[in-house]
Specification:
elongated; 0% strand; mainly alpha; 2 helices; 70 residues
């Protein structure tokens, strides 16, 4: 996979995982997603940081598996 493709994969993963994380945040706070609230700035930064770390780890793992088995 090219470097550009890796960057696209990381950005797309971060975008969708952040949406998922905000939904999970709301489920944890209210018990459902119908009462939608955005996390505080501090909580948002933690959320984005965690998602970013795992998006990068996911991309690196996929590249490693592709290299080993391709």
């Amino acid at each position: 996979m090219s470097e550009f493709a890796n960057i696209i994969q990381i950005i797309v993963t971060i975008f969708f995982f952040c949406i998922e994380a905000i939904l999970h945040y709301n489920i944890g706070k209210t018990g459902n997603i119908s009462s939608f609230h955005f996390p505080t700035m501090k909580e948002s930064l933690k959320l984005i940081g965690t998602v970013t770390i795992f998006a990068i780890a996911s991309t690196l793992t996929a590249n490693y598996i592709e290299t080993v088995f391709a």
